[in-house]
Amino acid sequence: MDTGKSVQRENVRQESVGNLDEIGNFQSQNERRRMAHIIMIHGSWSGGWMWDRVIPILAAAGHSAEAPTLLGADPGGTRFPSRPIAAWADQIAARVRKAAGPVVLVAQSRGGLVISEVAERVPERVGYLVYAAAFLLPDGASLGGTIQSAHPGAAPIFSVDTATGMTAVLPEALEKIYSKTPAHWIEVARAKQCLEPLAAIATPISVSDERFGSVPRAYIEATEDQVMPLTLQRSMQARLPCDPVYTIASDHVLPSSAPDELARRIVEIANRVDNPARLR
């Protein structure tokens, strides 16, 4: 990836697309294209349900999209793997290999580690990596270490059960995580939240410049993020540049607080993937 390439940063205001007419215009513009398949990865203590308000907008724009729940995060389902980041990357890489066309991977928060490792596994199948207020880390860095280094005095947002190695969101932290999200959707998140393995927070990422670094990256910033402040989002981009970069007035969970604007930006990025020769 050419790190010298100029970066497009665009300040945008959050606005509703109403009945999807505006975003639907993309479909007529792209009928001759090989439309990208979009796979969206949720963050910690969450599931594929967090993208429920985004998927219909992407579909209206002509893109196929899915938001799988990662292994272990489905209540009453599979157990969390012992090496969660690697296992989740394998899980999503298998879906990427089955996709008919180019794939755009979109991540929120901890999901950033997952899509980075997916790109390490199948770089030739991924058209774009999109980090939506997500962790964009270099090889050897961990989520927990990154937060601790950037904000050593920050109040914790989760508790740890040392007997099981699992973490849970502190009840009072939900208002911080979802600070701009309508109350109804905060309650949805409260009802559906799950545990998260401490290993997913503590394990260093494993990526290389040759594979992960060869895949184009985009970043969607959340200016009102109280978990991963804008300063941290931009320091990660300084080390691993992205193009394009969009900025939305949102809390940490863009799919909940700004689903319309987030979807519009994902579509714009996906429309850059026009049956590129590098994909096979």
Count of distinct strands: 10
Radius of gyration: 17 Å
Biggest beta sheet summary: 7 strands, parallel
Poorly predicted runs of 5 or more residues: 2-20, 22-32, 275-280
**Strand order, biggest sheet?**
1-10-9-5-4-2-3
| Number of discrete helical segments | 11
Shape: globular
Helix content: 25-40%
Structural class: alpha/beta
State the separation between the terminal residues, measured CA to CA. Answer: 18 Å
- Amount of beta strand: 15-25%
* Average pLDDT score: 88
Describe the structure in brief:
The chain is an alpha/beta fold. It is built from eleven helices and ten strands. The chain has a seven-stranded parallel sheet with strand order 1-10-9-5-4-2-3, sandwiched between helices.
Which properties best describe this structure?
disordered N terminus, alpha/beta, 280 residues, seven-stranded parallel sheet, 17% strand, three-stranded antiparallel sheet, single chain, 34% helix, disordered C terminus
Structure description:
The protein has a 7-stranded parallel beta sheet with strand order 1-10-9-5-4-2-3, with helices on both faces. It has a 3-stranded antiparallel beta sheet with strand order 6-7-8. Residues 2-20, 22-32 and 275-280 have low confidence and may be disordered. The relative contact order is 0.21. It starts with 8 loop residues before the first strand and ends in a 10-residue tail after the last helix. The chain is built from 11 helices and 10 strands. With 280 residues, it is an alpha/beta fold. It has helices at residues 21-29, 55-60, 84-98, 111-121, 143-150, 174-177, 183-192, 198-202, 230-239, 254-257, 259-270, and strands at 9-11, 37-41, 64-66, 103-109, 126-134, 158-161, 166-169, 196-197, 217-222, 245-248. α3 (84-98) crosses α4. The protein is 34% helix and 17% strand. The radius of gyration is 17 Å and the shape is globular. β9, α9 (230-239) and β10 (245-248) form a beta-alpha-beta unit.
